[in-house]
Design a protein that fits this description.
about 270 residues; Phosphorylase Kinase, domain 1; five-stranded antiparallel beta sheet; three-stranded antiparallel beta sheet; 8 strands; about 40% helix; about 15% strand
Length: about 270
Amino acid sequence: MIPTAETILTAFRTGSSLPVLAMTNHGTKCVVKWNGTGEGIAANVCDWIALQCARHIGIPVPAPHLISVTPDLVRTDADPEINELIMRSIGINLGIEYFEQTTPFSPSAPVSKSLKQLIYCFDVLMLNMDRTDVNPNMFFINGELYCLDFAAAMSLKMFFEQSSFSNDTFLPLLRRHPFYLPENEITIPDMTFRRDTIRSIVESIPNEWLTHGRSTRERMTDDIDSLFTLAPVTIKQRLQQIDTIALETSEERRLRVEANLHAFEKVVKRYQ
């Protein structure tokens, strides 16, 4: 049975989606990622699939869970913004395993070359544009590196929405990946998946999430199966493309962040 969020313990205001730490009716804590944000359900579908795929190929990640949000979570003395998100997110939301004590990622911390390459190549395959030197979305637990937040895995988003974007839109951000290496220094890791494993992951997507996309379970299974089957070729091609991209200057980054913020604000207005 899917646990229900009963009490909000704290809100994390470092990101635009305003996730919260909640206590469930099972007596466990988890981070709730709302459906009701601008990219909520599509982002949660991407995170749900990618976290399970990452675990399967050996990338340490927090366990994803499904968590129910009801109007009972609203509190009159709570932040009105949180209450609004609750009411826009009634139903099944994404819950992420919570760790009590973590250490922030540091580029100088020891991480094996094989794990660095695995994380980098997986992000390149997923077109995950939200792991950069500025925002690494990684942490340590007892010296072990964990990755989190695959909500911006654009390969999966395109499958879910049956949309198409040019790789050129996302590869410049992958050039800023904390574990970037030139293509000729990388041994592309094995990412073999059984089709029935992919099907099982896709089957676990809640029906109420799937209705917000333009795909079907069978189509998504086919798309993800093809993605991993062609992974060695796709990753190699993208790594070669990334090598041709110059790093952004500080001014270029500032302008890009401003443009992204304006685009996000437009999305939010559509949901207000």
